Every structure is written in C-alpha cells, then in structure tokens.
## 1
Amino acid sequence: MTERLIRVRDRRTIALHWFNAACWALLLASGFGIISGDDVRLAPAFWPGLVQNLAGGNAPVVSFHGVLGMVWAASILAFALFNLRRVVRPFLAEVLVLTPVTAWRDLRFTTVTLLRLFGLAKNAELPPQGRYNGAQRLLGTLIVLGSVLIALSGAYLFLAPKLLPFAANPLYGELFRWALMVHAGTVFAVLTGLIPHIYFAVVEEREALESMKSGQLPVDFIRHHNPLWYEELHRSGKI
Amino acid sequence: MTKKYVMLADATRCINCKACVIACRAEWGTPLGHSRDWVREVEMEGPGGMPDLMLLPGRCQHCDDAPCVESCPSGAAYQREDGVVLVDHELCSGCELCVPACPYDARFLNPETGTVSKCTFCQPRIDAGQPPACVGTCVGRALVFGDANDPASEVSRLLQEKEWLRLTSDGVNVGPNHYYHTGGRPLPPEALPKPTTPHVQGRLLEEVVNPLAGAGLLGMAGVFVAAGMKKLLDRRSEVQRQEGGHHD
Amino acid sequence: MSKTTDPSRRRFLGGAGLLAVGGYPARALARVKAPHAAEMLGPSREVFSFCDMCYWRCGLKIRVRDGRAVKIEGNPEHPNNRGVVCAKGNAGLMAAYDPDRLKFPLLRMGERGAGKWKRISWDEAYDRIAAAFLKAKEQYGPETLAMIGHGTWEKPYHRLAHAFGTPNTTSPVFGLCCGPRDVANQLVAGRPLGGNETLDLENCRYFLMMGRNITESLHNGETLGWVEAVAKGAQVVYVDPRYTITASKAKEWLPIRPLTDHAFLLALIRVMIEERLYDTEFVAAYTLGLEELERRVARYTPEWAEEECGIAAKDIRRIARELAAHAPAALVYSPRRLTRTSNDLGTGLAISILNTLLGVWDREGGIFSPLSFPVPEPDLPPFPHADAPRADGAGVEGVWPLANAQYGLTNQMWSAIAEQKPYPIKLLLTAGGNGFMNSTDFDAIRRAIGQLDFFVAADIAPNEMNQYADILLPEASYLERYDDLQTGGAKEGFVAVRMPAMKPLHDTRDAWTICKQLAGRLGLGAWFPHASAAELIDERLKKAGLSLAELETKGIVKKPADPARNFPREHGLPSVFPTPSGKVELVPSRLKALGMDDALDYLPQVRPQDGEFHFTFGRVGFHTHARTQNNPWLADLMGENELWIHPDAASRQGIRDGDRVEVADRNSRKETLRAKVTRRIRPDTVFMVHGFGHFDPRMRTAHGKGAADANLASRDRDGHLGTVAMGRSLVRVRKL
C-alpha cells in the first residue's frame, strides 16, 4: 500500500518549531546553570557549577541567557505578527483551551489516552478529535500562555536590575522576586508538559515527528487520529 | 593548607567608640543610613539592681552554612574557600532575597550601587596582609582577625586562651565564624539570632514551586519511562506470540 | 512565617530533592563553586600626618587616591595612638568634605549674626582687616586686640597677635578644661603632667577613676593603655554620678553626689595618713608638710565624707587600703575637664596629694617622666613688650595669679570684652573655636561681640560664634596643609609631621599663609619670614639635625623610651620635683604665699532643693566637644542628645522614655530635648551629652538638634583660679 501524504505545515512553521526547540534547549541549559543558591535551585549543583566554570563565571551565563531569551521572544513575536492571519490565528483557534467545558473534555481525553498507554480504559468512549487532540490542546495552551509569562518575567528579571533603582522603591524588588518565582514555576510547568510531547513524537507517533521535518503527514494517520480534521480536509477538497 | 578566617571580638575590651563603624564607612564608602558593621550596646540589670552593659561589636559572621549564599538565585552571594562570604556585584540584581535570610541582619541594599552590601572582612586588605579596617582602627583592640587554621596566629592563641561564645541560639546555628569573649558572662538573649522570616517568594520557590516541579518532572518522566517499558514488553510478547504462531 | 535554619536540613533536603534521593554526593548538591568578581579598593599612596579632630593629636597615615584623601589610618609608630584611630579621627575626612564648609572669604552685609554675606577676594579681606586693626591700634593701643584660638592649628595666630603687641591671647584649654588639674600638680610636685598625661597606664594595677570617663572622653593612646591594664586584671573603682561605659568596665561603681569629689578625696587622705598607709620612705625622702596636712584633714573623717558625698565610710576606708596595697602601681585618676566646682583647685590638689602619698612618682604603674625631642624654634625678632596686663587677669598678681598666662581664662576674656574692663577691647580675632558652645554664658558672648569694632573669624566650618564675624576667613583643613611640627613627650620623645593629603578645597588657605599674608598687611612681616609652613618646619628640623624630606618618609622620628629616665626611682636614681623647695609640697608653699591655701580645705557646694536636679554633661566617644555635631558621619551615630533621668525621678514628673522635656536653670535659661529614662544615673542628677543644640542655620545637619548644655552649665568661678565652675547649675525638668 502506498502511503498517501498531505502537506500540513509550511517550511517557515517547521523552522520556527525547531528554532523554538533549540532556544528552549539552550535556555534551559543556561537557565538551570544560572540559579545557584541551594534554597532556590532545582538542578543539582554540579550543573550550574559546570556551566559557570565553562563560561568563566555566572555573569556571561546570565548575559547569554538574557540575550538569547530576548532573541527567542522577539523572533516568535515577529513570526506571529507576520503570519498572524495565515498561521497564528488558526493555530490559536484550534489549540487554545478557553472554557471549562473544553478543558474538562480535553482533560478526560488526556487521561484516557494516558491510561491506554498502560492497557487500561480500553472501553472508554473517546470523542473524535480535530487537528489537535485534547492532550495537544492542553499542552499547546500551556506552552502559549507559559511562553508569554516566561518572556515577560524573563525580560523583567534581565532588564529591571539594569534599568530600575531597586533601592528607591521596594516594589521593584518585590516584583523581581515574583517574576523569578513565576519564571521558574512556568518553565517547570512547560518542561513537565514537554516530556509527553517528546515521548509521543519519538516513541508513539513517529509520523508526527516526520511531519515536523517534511511538513507532510499520511492521510491515513489523519483519518485515524484526527477524524474531525480529516472530514474538514475532505470537505474543503484538500484530500 | 586552606585558611580559615575568623573574627574575635572581646566584649570586655570594647568601649562602643564606633571607630570600627566609621573606619568601615570610610573604607567602603557606605552611604549614610546603612552600615556594614555595628556595635550593639545591651543594657542589663546587674547584681543588686545595679546597671550593667554588654558591648558587642558585630558584622557579617561569615557563617560556614551561610543562608544568604543558599538564598541567592544568581550566585552573587558566594563564599571563598577561606570562609569569607562576599557579594559579586556584577551578578547581584538587588532582589534582596538574601537580606532577610541573614539571622544577623548584616546585609542591606546599597542605594548607590543598587546591589546588596555587607562586610567583606575587607577582603582586598586581608589578601594584601593588612587587617580589616575595623580591626586596624579598634581603639580597645577588642577586635582580632586572623587565620584559625594557622596554629601560630594570634586568633589561634586567643581561641585557646580564652572562653569564646558565638551568636547562636536553639533555633539558629549556621556556623558563624565571629567569636565573642564576655569575661564569663552569658550573652544576653536579645543579642542572639532569631529565626528569620524570608521573603514569601523565596519561601514559595523553596517550599512549593521547586518540590512540586521536582515531583512533577520526576512523576511525568516516570510515567513515560513506564509507558515506554510497557510498549517494549508488549512488542516483545507480540513478537513471541507471532513466533509462537509460526510454530503452530 | 518563620523558619529555623539548620545546616543538616539542607544536606538532606537540599533543593534538588529529585537527585539527593539517589545518593548524589551531598557536598556537590550544597554549593555551586564558580569564578567570581570581588569588590576591590583602588590603588593609593600614603602621606603622614597627625590628627586635628581633638587635642590629643594621634599619628596618622592618610591614603590618597586620585588627588583626594580617601582613608585615614593610624600610624603604628606614634606613641599617642600606636596605630589605632577613633571614630572622630576616621571621620576627619568629612571635616574636609563637609558640604557646609566655609568655602571662600566672606564679608558681613547685614546686622551681625543676620547671616547675610558677600563673597570677597582674599586681598580685599586682608585690606579691610588691616585697615580696621591699624585704626583701632592707633586709637586704643595694641592690647585692644583679643585673639581667641581653639583647636585648629592656632599657633600662627598667637604669633600674629603677639607681634601686634597684645597680651590677650587665649584658648579654652585652661580655664574651661584642664586648668585646675595642671595647676594642682604644678603646685604640689612642680610637674603639671600636661595635656597628654604621663601615666604608666599599662602597668597600673588599681585605678580610682574620679569621674574620668576614659572610654567616652577618649584619647586613643590613653584609652588603649587603660583597656590593656584592665584586660590584664587591673581593678577599677569608678566614681561618677552616672554609669558610663567606663563604669561598665569597673569592679565597682560609686555613684557619688555631684560636686563632692573633694570630700571623698579628703577622707581618703585622712585614712591614708591615720592608718599609715602611705609610702613612708618616699614621703620621708621627698615631701614636705605631712604634719600640717594631717592636721588640716583631721576633721574629714570617712563618716563626715559619707554624709557629704554619699559613699559609705567603710568603702572609703577599704578603698584607701586597696590603693595602698597596690601602690605604687595605683593611680587616683583625675578628670580631664576639672572645671566643676568653686574649689576645683582643692580637688586637683587632693588627687595630686593622694598620688604622692602612694609614692607613684617615677614608678612603674604610676607617673613617669617623659622624654622630649627638642626641636629649636626659628629665630624671630623679640615680640614687642605689652605694657598692659592681660585683660582676663590670667597670671596677673592681684587678679588670677595662678591662672596660666599662655592660654588664659577664656571666659574671663569674654567678660572683659563684654564689660570693656579693665580697658577697651575693640578687635577680636578668633581661630576656630565656638565661644557659645564652649563657654557657659551666651549672654556675655553676645554682649562682648556687641562691643567690638571689628571681628575676624578664621575657621573651617560655620558655627554660632563665627556667624557674628565681620569677615570670615575660610581655612584649609588639616588634611590640606602643612603645619608646624608636633613635638611630644611620652615615654618616647618624638617629632612628627603633618603633610597635606591634597590641595586645599574651594578657595581656602592654610593658617600659616593667612597669618603671614595678614602680617604683611599689618607691617609685621618680620615675624613671618618663611614662605610657607613647609619651609618653617624644614628650618626647624635642620636645626635639630633632621630635614623635612627625611621626616616625610617616616612621619615620625623618635627618641627611644629609656626606663632609667622614665622611671628613675625603679633604677636607683632620684626623682626631681621642680618646686620652690625642690620637694613635693603637700601644702604648697606658693599657695601659702598667696594666702590661698584654703583651697586645701573643703568648700561645701550647692544642693538641689525640692524638685531640682544637679545638672551634668559629658562626652561620648564619637563626638569632639561642640564641633563634630555637623559632621555627617558622626551625626549618623548620634544626631541629637538626650536628657538622662532616673526612672524614680522621671515617674514623679510623669516623664517617659522619649518624651520631650524642658530643662531650666535658676536663671530661667531653658533648653528642650528628649528624655532618656535610665537607671544609669543618680535620682538627684540629670545629664546630657555635650555639644548639641546648635542654632546656626548654616550647620544644616546639626541645626536645631538636641539641647545646648552650654546654655545651662553654671557661670560660677573657681575662687582661686578663675576657671569656670560649670557643675554648679541646678535645674528643673518639665514634661512638654
């Protein structure tokens, strides 16, 4: 049987995904390398020790992390602005989980999917999914909102000490500390979500990973996993 | 051998003249309203209702287990091998997470630098073989500074000769390297460190965010490692079943 | 929210819980080790100097960076401080960098004291001063000039005034401070001991501190020597109505009734003679007048003294015995400012007599003989003979013959100007100082200034007195100038140099330049032949076989201590007492000749009536008299003074700690300040730290802070010396 393929995303989007992934990898590596104090640090000390010694101190690590973070945020923002109507709006419309009803539905989907990995809940009814299934929608929402929070808090963490007189107003420091907590907490949350993201791409659904290289996805894969999307593609005559 | 710097303060020789405070201000240009060192004058009631005074010069205690170092996100608070706790002003953001972490109230946000300041044991001076500014100027020679790992040093001799106390309490003992001689009198309770109240964000990070994240990451990773294993096992039994089928 | 910090907790629960569980090495989890930047101090060079923040004058090394003095350190070679520097000395930088400093010559525009000034050139200032001085000299004679110095380097002003022909130069050190102490020692032993008292503190084993608050009215070398002795186990009996920091170092605090020290001392003398506790050998060989002294003190029994001063008779007897047991390593320690009662001379004599009975002269742990380092003065023409006697009567037969004629009686000088008696004084030149805050009579100062034709004040910083000047000359601070040499007598003889750490800031000039330039305008140039202070001291040093260049590399040159000369009686050598008889005179012959030997007898002092308090004042270790309250660094340590009052007395008046109170004396002089309610003072006494309550608005830090003790201290005089009896004020305290 020859696989019928369909183009589902363009080169720029693919490039953005991998750019985003690379930035995340570097920002995580450097970010975990910055946080030093035992009371505020999650990574074991060997990591910041290694990173800071390689860089000749924490200051260059901080600069690298801050500058890369701003490049990352600015690039994604620029992409979003230039591809607003074509890519971003449709993507957000598909992905964002905005109501409790959808949230409940997606959560149920996610739970059942997880259980099925272990051969459980085989008989649970699962509603047909669109382009993004419930789990992807939850993760997507987490990533989109998380990225905004991470970018904003990160910008404050990096720029505020250079621009604001902290001693003049205790609010500046107060905000810094909240930003630090939000920044770290959000990164941890997204990072937690990335574990299944990578698992499914690497282990369960190799086609999805392939599509993030070629831009193409087998039609059968879509019909099987994303029937609603399949119908929509069918209706619009793309298949 | 690694040095182990300690400060000895002989309360019986201290006269609260504040020479140490001004010498430090001059050396480090500390802005008014803040100081890196101090003299604490505790008024007590002596025997027979007579007044009594205890004079305790103080500064950063350069603790072995310095809570400021542990609370600093950027590593701006750090400790040298010889025990001196310092601030890397290139790294310090002025977030003040370290300030309430210190049980001795030794750290403050310097309005001129926007970074946290504290006693450095006059690190450039001691590295050049001079005493810290406070020690060099001390009118009663109540302050003595040196390397406790050098058996020939004055501090080693004094540590042997006299009885020394440290500012620790049941709740707080972070291994201070600042010693006090009181001539046999107990340290007044008001001079002892109280448990600190850290900033809420620092506490949330330490007690909520990081443990949750650690558990979440571990849990999530565990789930999918398990899922992967199950998949592997399933595939193996599938293969075996198919092989078995062939045999049939 | 509170947490306890326990090191072990971190080892096991360290943030990275996820890996610690897996037996990850605890140490690696605990700390991140990485390269770091540390705070550094910029490169600097050092110049030598000696301090000018008080009159003890400690040796300094001043660090200079980029042409600015940045840090003051002690010179370990200097015997006055052996390397340590007090808070005042460290804050000397702010004497130069004081934002309120006098910056250029000023001419008064409005009423005297109204604070309206015009900046003028130095030349105009000199011209105006010379014109006024020469006119008044013509009209009234040279004695119409009074020169009042204080503390900053006043030597050239003395020279200028003497060249002008007036005898009327004075500074407060005698009449407002140490006079009675020095005269008493001079009369008894012919050895005044001087401003830097020659006491062998380190080896003393027993101190009877007569209100000598040595830890707060502190001079580095003296305080350090005393602390050393106490650390080595010397016993201290501290006698003071107030529990000071010095009291906290003592074995015993005796809260004596104010003004009655003399009674306590007389009883000690009596016990010492009665019980033969004195050094019989020394007394026999070196003293005169024991029998007469014994007769004179016979009535001063410990029981009598207990009634008078409040110290138990048995304690008086015990202390006499303890003193004797520790002699000669025992000292009865005089207060420094012995200007308290109307018979301070008697108190000083009693202290000198007690030390003599203990035989401490020229003994280790007692009083030593200093070495000197003679450096000849430059050759100058003799000063013109002053026909008129000193207006303050200091050293004048029939007026105050015992008062020191070099320093004079500053309060008497102000009175003489105020009254224009015994002759008109129309010109006033002040060099530093603050007549308001260092004397006790604001009224007399105001009236005196009102009598003047012309008032020139030279100073570094503004204060109440110089705001009344007609011309105000801004001086370079001690960090910005050379000065005449410091030659000293300690166990070591020494000569020390003051070098400038930087150029004078603003449009200021050093005192030697000012006096030389003024002398030129007044036709007195012959007395200022040197182009600069540096040239002057180089000439002096060359006469002593040294040079300025050499001294600048060392800061100080010393003649090493010589135990045989410091302590001759420890080495079988005789002591020398330059009295008229050549012996220590227990009843001084000079006093008898003047008919003033009644000073030996007790003179009862004032006692508070119902609701009144004894008024006392004193020092803290981090302010110098009335001249550092505007120093921003020192004001940060203490910005205003408080009224110390005992809780029993406070509760009677409904006063609580921190309340604002008004203090008023019997002459209705009033000051207000906050109350400090403390057991550290007698219930019949109140106290405040000296030097606050500044009312010159140019002193932006100190203005209006605290109360002026000078406006409450007594204006009475010691009947024999003319020194001020500041402690005789009785005050009432009212809650505001």
## 2
Amino acid sequence: MTLFLNIAVDGIAYGMILFMISVGLSITMGLMRVVNLAHGGFALLGGTFAHWLAQENGMPFWPAAVLAVLVTVIVSLPLERVIFRRIYDFGDLQQVLATIGLTFLMIASVNLWQGSSLLSIPLPDSLKQSVDLGFRTLPVHRLVVIAVGFASILGLWLLLDKTLFGIRLRAAVDNRSTASALGIDTDWIFMAAFGLGAGFAALGGILGAEILPIDAYYPVRYMVLFLIVVAVGGMGSIAGSFIAALGLGLLETATRYLVPDVSTIAFYALVIILLAMRPQGLLGRAHA
Amino acid sequence: MTPLMKSWAPPLALLALAIALSFLMPFNLAFLTRILIMVVLVLSLDLVLGYAGIATLGQAAMYGAGAYAAGLFAIHVWADPLAGLMIGAVAGSILAFVSGLVLMRTQGLTLIMLTIAVAAICHEIANKARDITGGADGLRGIHMEPVLGMFAFDFVGTTGFWYALAVVVVIFVFVALITRAPFGLSLRGIHESPDRMAAIGVSVYWRRVTAYTVGGAIAGVAGALSAQITQLVSLESFSFTLSAEALIMLILGGTGRLYGAVLGTLIFMFVHHWAAANDPFNWLFVIGAMVLAVVFFLPKGIISASAGLARLIKGARHAGS
C-alpha cells in the first residue's frame, strides 16, 4: 500500500511537470500542424532566466519564476513571427529540420551565456520543508507542483471553454481556413497560442528543475519525452495531454520503483505498444 | 552526353574528389574516413526516407546495432573485416525488420516518435548490458585482421580510408541499382501516393517494411565499418544526435538523388570540422544557422542550388525591368 501511494504521489508530480511543458506543444501541433522539436527550448529558456535571476542576482524564487516565464513569452512571440510562421506550410521533414536548427541555436545561446554546467534554481526555504503525509514525508515543492498543475489544467479549461478566445482557438484547431473565412484573426490566435504554450513550457521547466535538471542540452535530452506525451495524448487535445502526461508520469515512476534495472526499456516498450495500437493517440482524431 | 554518362558523371566526380582529398590531406585521413562512414549511413537514410518516404529520426538504431554486432563478432568469433560487415548488415536488417513490422503501420509524427523510441531503447539496452557492451565506457579491444588477408590496418589510417572508400563505392552502386529496379520505382510510387499504389495492387505495407529492412542493413554496414576502423563502439552510436545529423546531411544535399546524399555529408562534415576547430564551444551556432538557411533558402538541398540561383537572377531581372 505504501509503495502504491509512493508511486501515486511521485508519479502525479512528475506527470504535472510533463503536462505543463507539453501542453503548449500539443496546442501548437494541433493548431498549426507543426512538428516542433524546439518546444523544450522554451522550458530551457525559462529555466535559464530563472537561474540567472534567482541564483546570480539573488531574486526571491517566485518573482524570479514569474519574470522568467514572462521573458520567455516575450522571446517566443517574435520567434513565431519570424521563423515558425514561415514553416507552417512546409512538409513534416522540413519542419523537423527547421526546429532542430532552432533548438541548436537555443542550446548554443544558453551555452554561450551560462556555460554547459547545471543551472540550478535555488528553492526558498518554504518549498524545501517536508510535510508528513502519514505514509512518508514529502518536500512541499512536490505538493506545490501538483497544485500548480491542477491550477493550470483548470485555468486552461476555463480559458478554452468559457472565453471568446477559447472558442476562436478551438475553431481554428478544427478548421483553420473556415475559421479564418468567418472573420477570426487566425494569425493573432496562432501567436497568442504559441506564446501561451511557451509560457507553460517555461513554467514547467522552472518548477520541474528538481526532477528534470536544467542545462544547455535540456531540449535534446527530454525532446522525446515531451513529444511522446503529445503523441500519446493526441495532437491538439488538452484533455488528452493531461491524461497522457499523468499516465506516463505514473508509468515511468512505477517502472522505476518496480523494475529499476529495466525501467527505461519497459517505459519505451509500453509506449510503442500503445502507439502501435492507437497511432492517433488516446484522444486524438484521425487526421488525414 | 548519353543519359547513362550523365547520371554517372556526378558520382564519378565525387569519387575523384575523394581520392584527390586523400592526397591533399594525408594527415587528416581519419577525418576523411569518418566522412565516408557517414556517407554510407546517409545513403541508407536516402533509400528509406528520400525514396520510400518513411520519415525516420532513428536510423542510428540500426547503425548502432551493426556497430555492436560487428565489434562483438570481431572480439569473440572472427576478426575478418568483410565477415564483420556481413554481420553488421545482418544485425541492422534484423532490427529494422522486427521494428519495421510495428513502425510501418504508422505515419507522420507517430512514426517519427516511434523511430526515436526504438533508438532510445537500444541505447538503454547497450547502456545496461555492461558486461557485454562495456556500457558507458564503450566496447573496446577490437583488433581487426588485415582486409582480404593482405592489407593490415595501419596507424596513419591509409588502409582504413581505402577500405571505407571501397565499401562506399559498393554500397553506392548497390543503392543506385535498387532505385532503378522495379522495386525502387514502386517505392517512389508509394512515396508519392500510397493510395494509388495500393489501388494498383501493391502491398504498400510489405514494400515499406522491405525498404526499411534494406536501409537497416546498409546502416548496419556503416556501423560495422565504424567499429572496425575506429576499434571502438560507444553509446553515441545509438544517439539521437547521430540520427538528426544524418537527416540534416541528407536534406542539406537533397533527398531522392544519391549523389545529393554524398554531397550533403561532405559539406556538413567539413563545416562541422571547421566550426568545431575554430571555436570548440560555439560551433553549434554555425550548425543551427546552416540548418535554418538550408530549410528556408534551399528546401530541395544543395543540388538544387544552381536552379535556385538561376531563378534568383531571373527574378532580379524581372524586378528590374
């Protein structure tokens, strides 16, 4: 029972991080049909800014995190205008290549600015404390991650289901040209969605730094993980991303507890079986 | 010029270039050999991706399988180089066939994901099976016998270079023949319209599996070649970076034409070498910028550069008039 609860708590915390980083990727891939391998780069940028603000300039954790997320969003918007907008119409491979090139540039930039060492983000004492859950003690940090994760899905649900922006975004995901013919400014929707996704990635990168440590090669190391979440969840489906992230977080944690020697192999093997059975993902629609 | 001469002129020019380079850069033979090995890998990718249209970012899986198989075979069984190449080809094709049975049922992003996942699994297996593969330290202690019993591998790398060049020529001719055969033409048809090929009675799935398997065998040869010449197999042979770089080289040169793959590899490796030698810390800037430049300005690769240039000049003239 204790083992089960351990897996549940660690897995959910891990899943929340995966969800925050991947949800933007799912939106942009569903919306713009772009195979974006550079998405992890925004988590890296967020983490790097937070490291620079908190570690080198002594800013407290929360203001540094918020500022870092904002700066990442501000960086992502011109990138969408200048680079991504041009590759929407390209083929899959050209998109893969362009975003790999962009990832390399991001890695090189962070490498030039902060070097290739580990970029730690110091946690405040309030997050470092442990709480006693009865069956184990847990750092407050994990609980905060879980809480922020649930807040994110709630916020996203309200944004997409209850606001005009959400209606327009969903219309654009369903059919871009019809939405645009109805007078929806899809260019603006794309940019806003892209910035939103980059912001969530930055948030996930900063909060997840304890679990997925930040360094210059972060986007390449975890690229597969984020893409798997989207592929398993189904492109463009936020609920799918959430279920996939939680499921994969639990699966990865369970394999690490139960079969530590072959956890990575078991994890990938299960993902392959799942994707072979449902190529469009759990909640994805079959696109042509 | 007859059509036959025309189609063989670029590869022959590249062969002459390779031989000329070996005399111009006698102290960089190891680097030139590295290029030749990558040419074999990129040729395999051109068959799988350029001709059959199978989007993959996991060609390193077969490369690594061939490298480890050839390395282990040389250490434990027989250190003959040509037998080792065969073993590498067999290992690469078995892995490609088994994984292909699942992978070829999918398309697009899912396919790309799964190819990456297969390479990641292989990487992890090689990492965990430390007793057999040496784990993160790499597989050491590979000592090859002379090629054909006559040419011993030397310290400067002369034998390695000519051996690799011979393998490149054989593989190039082999792939060129496949792409001209009915099988190769049917792959092209599948690339352009799987539905129509299915409609005229072609089993698209099995053709794709076959193409992936043949590509896997060639990638296995590339891996085996690398294991024999460098006498080391590291975990890097399964890395995502290797798959990604091979893809960059292919697109850089231009898909669907074999000498494009060779040209792309040559240019990428030289730029990489030059950038890394000039600035060991920031060379990734150069690679990233180069990749973006190719995607935006030469979407069909370097082999389309002359046509693109002509269009540019023509366009400028139109604008001026």
